[in-house]
Amino acid sequence: MRVLVVEDEPLYRELLVHALVNRIPGVVVVGDCATAEEALAAVGPDDVDVLLTDIDLGSGMTGTQLGIEIRRRTTTRGVVLLSNLALPGVLTTLPPEVQGGWSYLLKTSVSDIDQLGRAIEAASAGEVIIDDALVDDLVVSMTSPLGELTPRQLDVLSRMARGWSNRRIADDLQITVRTVESVASDIITALHIGNADDGLNPRVAAVMVYVQNTSPRNSRRLS
């Protein structure tokens, strides 16, 4: 899987490329840039599978804007956003035609190779996932559609938002995979999600509803 890294801090960019992304099996860094403009000038129409970018790139375009442009201009399938801010709600502001295939990670979490690899793979597959640490801090709005879900359904949905497989959810909650599949189906029905809402598969659409109707308990800048 071909990954383009965009980060304006040289030392952190070097860390991402050499110490982290290159350690993920099946992933290769095909380029690294300091700015969004540099990335847009460098990338060809079929050069990159996943963009890994800091949201805050200094002056000029943000990483989110870069992700939207690259998705529109090229065959890039996914975007992984890195940030020091606990604001995953940015995923709900994306244009409908590029909503699938985004991951949101805290920069303090990228040293977790398993989670970083999962975020890249999920973005490439068109899924939407957010950082485990952020999910732990999210508060559900009970006056939203999520208020109609049972505690078990919320437990499963929060793990879906982490990009966990049905098997991993089952193991974590000590239930069967078939039960997870049944609960996930019930979640999609309860949230009135069709087979292709906004062009997203039902599981991704459910995660987007979750992100849209939760908020960080503590939205301060994380360091």
Record keyword descriptors for this entry.
single chain; 223 residues; alpha/beta; Rossmann fold; Arc Repressor Mutant, subunit A; 6-stranded parallel beta sheet; two-stranded antiparallel ribbon; 9 helices; globular
Helix content: 40-55%
Shape: globular
What is the ordering of alpha helices and beta strands? Answer: EHEHEHEEHEHEHHHHE
CATH superfamily label of the largest domain? Response regulator
CATH topology of the largest domain: Rossmann fold
Q: What is the SS-derived class?
A: alpha/beta
Query: How many beta-strand segments?
Result: 8
Strand content: 15-25%
CATH class type of the largest domain = Alpha Beta
Instruction: Count helical runs.
Output: 9
Low-pLDDT segments, ≥5 res = none
Strand order of the largest sheet: 2-1-3-4-5-6
Corresponding CATH architecture of the largest domain: 3-Layer(aba) Sandwich
Radius of gyration in whole Å, from Cα?
A: 17 Å
- Termini gap: 30 Å
Q: Summarize the main sheet.
A: 6 strands, parallel
What number of domains? 2
Mean pLDDT across all residues, rounded?
92
